[in-house]
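ok trying this again, last paste got cut off
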Amino acid sequence: MRATVGERGQVTIPKPLRDRLGLRPGQRVEVSEDAGRIILEKIVEDDPIARMYGTLRLPKSVDEIMNEMRGPAVLPPEP
């Protein structure tokens, strides 16, 4: 894929590549150079799953909800 450097140094990343890498408008990237090559790396600020951890508030305990959904657990008799 080819791109052109504009007057202000801007380069448009081709859409198929943006789609494949999940680059969206506003996405931050790290730009570096190595042996004459320009390296562009997508910055992942934080893990979205980790960001959501602990935000769910349940009105009951997990055991109470499971008992409502499945019925009380039936334990096997002890030997």
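PB: full thing came through this time. The chain has a mean pLDDT of 88.
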